Amino acid sequence: MKRKGSIWGLVFVLLLAILSGCGGKKPAGSGSESGEPAGGDAKKEPVELSFWYGWTGTEAAALEKLIQKWNDIRPDIRVKGLSQSDYQKQLTAITGGNPPDIASNFGQDVVPWGERGAMMPLDDYIKKDNVDLGDFVPAALSSSQSDGKTYALPIAMHVSMLFYNKELLEKAGLNGPPETMGQLKEYIAKLSVKENGGKLQRLGLWPGVDAFTFSYAYGGSYYDAENKQVTPDNAGVKAAVEFGKGIWDQFGSKELDRFASGLGQYMSPQNPFFTGKYAMTIDGEWLPTFIKQYAPNLQYGIAPIPYDENNPSLKHPGNVTTSVFYIPKGVKHPDESWKFLKWLTEPEQMAEFTAAIGNLPTRTSLQQHEIYKDVPGFQEFLQYSSSPNLHSFPATSFSAEYMTEFTTQYNAILRGEVGVDEGLKRVKDKIQPLVK
């Protein structure tokens, strides 16, 4: 699942409506075993659940296959899936009192949504059905928890690495991928090609790529929990912003916009990395599966994210995110929703789904499962996922607003609409009042 920024455009009054008028039922009974329908209700009409998920294309097809598997073994609880990647619509449906019965989201949204009453706590169900939370990767599970409450269960874990076109590097006389940020800057210059009067034909790396990942490459931190201070002006964060700005200015907004207008769609054979428009890219563990499908002849390599050469202890940095399933507050059939959610995140279904779409599972018991042996890139990402220098954006009630504002000001900085210091100050001035 590709990450998309969450937008909190709804007023607090609507969120209060969830707390006051849309409370879900308390757990009435434990979920049955994976394939057993509840007894004694054969003549009753089946409960119908709506399931909104953010995956599209072949990834959505993999999830629909699981939905069909469930419907085949559980005729008493019928699930209808809908590919819906607009998460603002999820929030609108929840606050409007007409939520889907189960939905997917991203880990960075769980705490803000959960604490504001949009997600139903799952702890009573987890305890009653003896779900082993100890089998989940701690960093993945923690993104779904706050103040002792679990608001979602993670189905997949995402880590970014550096992909590079072996043939293009070889033609440029480069022996292997860059290891440090200084080398990365040199590679971008050597691999970028201008022709036809200075027009870009190829980029070494898109300069506006993922400032969060590069912040960790410089040892950055976004929040000082002890002093309850947001820190977008942290030295490591600032260094990452300055790195992106320096690369951007080598080409300029006008030329980059012209170049970008001719790039192909991400999930297609025209992906700019697949066609050689990008010599390198920062992407997640799902990309090798897309390459196998859309560009099987591409000669590529996977390498760690470069690190600050002045601090070797920062090797193998990166940003960890998760995809989760949750039950919205106010659903009509919370018990049935839980049964389906629990089933989806059990090892068998998690393995089937994550292997099909090339994602990392969040259960430690699956990490050596044979189902992943033929998943391209899986071993590289699995090994990388154990790096101590991987970090998640801090899970707070204001993280959605924080990430949105940071991204907004980062783009403004790149385009020269505001200076680096002023842009980061704007982030701090806007987000610090939200800290409670």
From TrEMBL:
Domain of life: Bacteria
PROSITE patterns in the cross-refs: PROKAR_LIPOPROTEIN
Pfam family, any one: SBP_bac_1
Record InterPro entries: Bact_solute-bd_prot1, SBP
Name under which the protein is recorded: Sugar ABC transporter substrate-binding protein
